[in-house]
Write a structure and sequence with these properties.
Blueprint: H1 3-18, H2 31-38, H3 42-54, E1 58-61, E2 65-68, E3 78-80, H4 86-92, E4 97-108, H5 111-117, E5 124-134, E6 137-147, H6 156-161, H7 163-170, E7 175-186, H8 189-194, E8 202-212, E9 217-225, E10 230-232
Parallel strand pairs: 3-10
Antiparallel strand pairs: 1-2, 4-5, 5-6, 6-9, 7-8, 8-9
Helix pairs in contact: 1-3
């Protein structure tokens, strides 16, 4: 089945859930109704619903249907729990955003950076630092390392726009998995220089490796977030014990 078909249905259903057309606690329309709405096969609808369930939007209830379990987070707009770009998050929340590249260079991975990132010593990588602005406030300091052999042709202009859009749409690479670690750290001099911290003296920090469909790591990233605009969101299922 064409991948774009179920992805488009997934995005359509997700928008309807997020804007309250399918409210929390209610059942989404039946598979039969959705098939008629989207003019597609049952399998396509099931793939879209499975994606929503995996991302914490719905839960299948045996004998009843598919119930909406999504609730909007009011406190924060940037949530860690999926692979979503800064632009995608901002668009979903209807927010004004901007990105400023403060460092764009090409470096060779040394022993220390290899231990930190997981890249092999001697690898050539792009080193990118960006400040992310939300409604004019500097809220996130991103530091990224991209493997040049897998992400060729990157420029500062691409970094100011969307690196993931470049990777997926121009290079044709499928981004599939990210392993993240989340910590709380004291603000550094660099944080204080670039971010609007207000009364905060600490930040929420996410760091991790990102892999493509072949299981190859092409990125290591660290994002330092002003706490007021950060939340952690995750969806897990309890497994039955034997």
């Amino acid at each position: 089945m064409p991948k774009a078909k179920y992805e488009n249905i997934y995005k359509s259903l997700r928008r309807k859930i997020e804007n309250g057309e399918y409210p929390y606690g209610e059942l989404v329309p039946s598979e039969h109704t959705l098939i008629a709405i989207y003019e597609c096969s049952r399998n396509t609808i099931r793939r879209a619903l499975a994606g929503l369930a995996e991302d914490g939007y719905v839960q299948s209830i045996h004998g009843k249907g598919v119930r909406v379990i999504y609730q909007k987070i009011e406190r924060a707009v940037f949530s860690v729990g999926g692979i979503e770009t800064f632009k995608e998050t901002a668009k979903r929340n209807r927010l004004s955003v901007d990105t400023k590249v403060i460092n764009f260079s090409e470096i060779t991975v040394d022993e220390k950076l290899s231990r930190e990132t997981g890249f092999v010593q001697g690898d050539e990588v792009y080193y990118v630092q960006r400040v992310r602005y939300l409604d004019g406030k500097a809220l996130i300091l991103d530091t990224n390392f991209f493997l040049k052999s897998m992400v060729p042709g990157m420029t500062k202009e691409i970094a100011e726009d969307s690196i993931y859009e470049y990777i997926e749409n121009k290079l044709g690479m499928q981004i599939t998995t990210t392993k993240r670690q989340i910590t709380v750290e004291h603000a550094t001099a660099l944080d204080e220089k670039w971010l609007d911290l207000g009364d905060y003296d600490c930040l929420a920090v996410t760091a991790g490796q990102t892999f493509n469909a072949d299981g190859m790591m092409f990125e290591y990233a660290q994002s330092r977030h002003q706490p007021e605009y950060f939340s952690f969101q995750n969806v897990v299922s309890r497994k039955k014990t034997i």
